[in-house]
Specification:
635 residues, mainly alpha
Length: 635
């Protein structure tokens, strides 16, 4: 790849802008921990939504989704349900509001509002802190190695070495790139905190959006629908499917058939049903204690937390899929012959660099590289911010130095941020197969997360011991179950892991007493969940006359169903634009309009009305006992 001077200037200006943003907001961020970790809970919901979307627009995910679109076409719409992508709809409809009503600073602090301050609550609190920190370190290790290898493809060392006054062995070039870019991300995170991240993400997302539109326009101008149709099998350009996948690449690129077999997506109907089954439970568990949860807790109020989660799908899906489908269409038409000759040696991760190399020009190359760097740095920065939030708020201030003044707290945050990044960098420096290790960590953590975190919202009898043992059982199961089924897609043994984790939850819960009545009543009054809360709801209504229980389960489920269709339409819209399928595009716009209208009437309007009623009621009862206990514990 040829890198022009203008490309290097664009990248340099972008990196300098990130540091400048950190310097500008440094003073405001250093006022207190709420200001540093949550932006003082004064940032508008749309800025936090834009930042959250930017954090999800990562390099490795984009490259993986380009591969999915290449192989599976519009049926790749369903594969991100593995995460699941529709968890944002659950948070939009009700979970973000419930989470923000706690007024907690971190996910671990939230545990105290649910389980109180006994031994069980202490164990639950500890396991969440460990979960969060291990997850952060794992993702930072992955990011360090990933960005180094990615940049090496586009900026070969023989170009850069002329400007570096020291020798670097070839095997350490990716590490040098990784250290450089993670240092810049760490610098503006340490200086600017959450507010610095949000404003930097706004700049980064603008760059990524411009790049996505540019790639889409390039693909539309370079590839006709007829040229694309000649290169793909029948059914590639539709999201609909039968019992089996129904894509036959044998006459185009035969090696793809082996790839589909290896992915174990052949019986596509079963695959989608299993993703939906897992995804519903995962989504009901709420956000993991990472940057996504921090953005929700940073919102000004519960209503804006719901709007923030709704905005993530709007901000993220359109520009991201313009870029994904643009790269995919260009690769299919112009690289198919090369891939056919490679046989089973195809590396689909080369689609992105090959497309940039062939179709970009001076200036555009710099913009694309800046956008992909922004995709990495945005995710990395938000992840870095999450670690000290837990270590300072839930460890340092609670157990080490509870009376630390604000300046000491902020300085400790600086130090911990730097230490976490340095530690993850050192781990990444020596672990070459970091992706395998990361997948193991994430699989174990998420395996232990779902059952306990679904029950914490929806069942009054569930306690801190049940939470701890449910998480522990799930994590242990996720370590050993893959060894029993080494050639099985993890999705297919998820039910077994769920049963094991659920058993831990029930045994832990029924072998110990319930959470104390005051904690449960205060939690119910403040959060107002639906589910199995009848005994607590009765006591709460007796204590607080005028309290209205949550009877919105059916309405929320309807809104979630409509919301998932709405999200799918948002995803298909940019796909059909790039494919130039006018009739399908018109149908998608119609579905999007209808679902938007339903959500406006049945979710948005009713949420606004109920938020006003909730605020009025909470103002009448004053500060809760639970809030007073929380404030004393922090102070």
């Amino acid at each position: 790849m040829k890198i022009a001077l203008i490309d290097l200037i664009i990248i340099a200006v972008y990196l300098a802008a990130m540091v400048v943003i950190g310097l500008i907001v440094k003073k405001r961020a250093a006022r207190n921990l709420d200001g540093y970790f949550l932006g003082g809970k004064k940032l508008p919901w749309y800025m936090l939504g834009l930042s959250d979307a930017s954090g999800m627009f990562d390099i490795s995910g984009t490259m993986w989704m380009v591969y999915l679109a290449f192989v599976y076409g519009l049926k790749s719409l369903w594969v991100p349900w593995l995460w699941p992508v529709f968890n944002q709809i659950f948070m939009m409809v009700y979970l973000s509001m419930w989470l923000r009503r706690s007024n907690a600073r971190t996910g671990a602090e939230w545990i105290r509002t649910r389980f109180g301050f006994g031994n069980g609550a202490g164990l639950a609190h500890g396991v969440v802190v460990c979960y969060a920190v291990i997850g952060v370190v794992g993702f930072l290790c992955y990011g360090f190695i990933g960005v180094g290898k990615f940049i090496e493809v586009f900026l070969p060392w023989d170009i850069i070495s002329n400007y570096v006054p020291f020798y670097v062995a070839p095997e350490y070039v990716p590490h040098l790139y990784g250290i450089f870019f993670t240092s810049i991300a760490t610098l503006y995170v340490i200086m600017g905190g959450m507010e610095g991240i949000v404003w930097a993400d706004a700049v980064q997302f603008t760059i990524m959006t411009i790049s996505g539109i540019t790639i889409a326009v390039t693909a539309i101008n370079a590839v006709s629908p007829e040229a694309l149709a000649a290169k793909v099998p029948a059914g590639w350009d539709t999201p609909f499917f039968g019992w089996e996948l129904g894509l036959d690449w044998s006459n185009h690129i035969p090696a793809i058939m082996d790839k589909i077999s290896g992915d174990q997506y052949g019986l596509f109907a079963i695959f989608v049903m299993m993703m939906l089954f897992k995804g519903i439970f995962f989504s009901m568990a709420g956000p993991a204690p990472s940057y996504d949860m921090q953005k929700i807790l940073a919102c000004r109020n519960p209503r804006e937390a719901s709007l923030m989660s709704a905005s993530v799908s709007v901000f993220l899906l359109f520009p991201r899929y313009l870029m994904i489908m643009g790269f995919t269409v260009l690769a299919i038409v112009f690289f198919s012959d090369d891939f056919r000759q490679m046989g089973n040696g195809i590396d689909f991760e080369t689609i992105l660099p090959r497309a940039i190399s062939q179709f970009s020009y001076a200036g555009l190359t710099g913009l694309l590289l800046a956008s992909l760097l922004a995709a990495f740095i945005s995710t990395f920065a938000s992840t870095v911010n999450a670690a000290p939030a837990y270590l300072i708020n839930d460890i340092y201030l609670r157990y080490i130095n509870p009376k630390a003044p604000v300046k000491t707290q902020i300085r400790a945050s600086y130090i911990i941020s730097a230490v976490v990044v340095i530690f993850s960098t050192c781990v990444g420096f020596y672990l070459q197969n970091i992706n395998t290790i990361l997948q193991w960590i994430v699989s174990a953590l998420y395996g232990g997360y779902i059952a306990a975190n679904v029950l914490k919202w929806h069942w009054w009898r569930f306690n801190g011991f049940g939470f701890f043992w449910g998480m522990a059982a799930g994590i242990i199961a996720a370590m050993f179950v893959p060894l029993l089924f080494p050639n099985t897609l993890p999705l297919y043994y998820f039910p077994l892991m769920l049963v094991v984790s659920l058993a831990g939850c029930l045994i832990g819960t029924y072998s110990s007493p319930p959470v104390d009545e005051d904690t449960l009543v205060e939690f119910y009054v403040r959060v107002r969940p639906w589910g199995f809360w009848r005994p607590v709801a009765a006591k709460a209504m007796a204590r607080y006359p005028g309290l209205q229980p949550n009877r919105n389960f059916r309405r929320d489920m309807v809104n979630i169903g409509v919301g998932i269709v709405w999200q799918c339409a948002l995803t298909l819209l940019p796909m059909y634009i790039v494919l130039q399928h006018k009739l399908s595009l018109l149908s998608t716009v119609l579905v999007l309009g209808i679902t938007t209208l339903i959500l406006k009437k049945n979710w948005y309007d009713k949420m606004n009305k109920e938020s006003i009623e909730y605020d009025r009621f909470m103002a009448t009862i004053g500060k809760s006992t639970q809030e007073q206990v929380m404030e004393k514990s922090v102070a």
